[in-house]
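Sample pair:
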Amino acid sequence: MRIGIYGGSFNPIHKGHIHLAQALVEQGIVDELWLLVSPLNPLKQDVSTDIAEYEHRLNMASLATQGINGVKVSDFEKHLPIPSYTINTLHALSKAYPQHTFALVIGADNWERFPRWYHSEEIISTYNIYIYRRPDCHIDETSLPPTVTLVNTPLYDISSTKIREAVRSNESLTAYVDYRVERYIKENRLYL
């Protein structure tokens, strides 16, 4: 089976994440998409001081994906050394699930800083990478390596940062997150 690996902090997971995941499966780009909730993103270690506890982020991702065919939530990275370097995660997944082939799913913003990723060249030479469009990011398709593909998915201008700000301003989150996630955030008093 072709598995797309879409990693992130998901702090919190929002409709943009979910619609993108669904589009990749529905278009047949991958057979399944696994949302890997990251315990610690190496490139964001000093950025976010308002990150929810790992279990909360995992629970919200599970709520948001209930009933969505082909989209699964995984805590695989929780069992790996921190920080979670993508190359190590991909190698560990390939070893744990030799019956599957794995591809990396990243946003155009991450592709722009991909050379900073740990062992980025090894990822490019070993795994397929699917890039989804992001606002204000332009990717020249003619410059992409053979293992890297720009996918035609809808553009979602939603950010977890804006959602956290909306929580602090006591605004409705209905436009941004699944109703179950909104309820979970309120019940657990996250991001206040």
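The mean pLDDT is 93.
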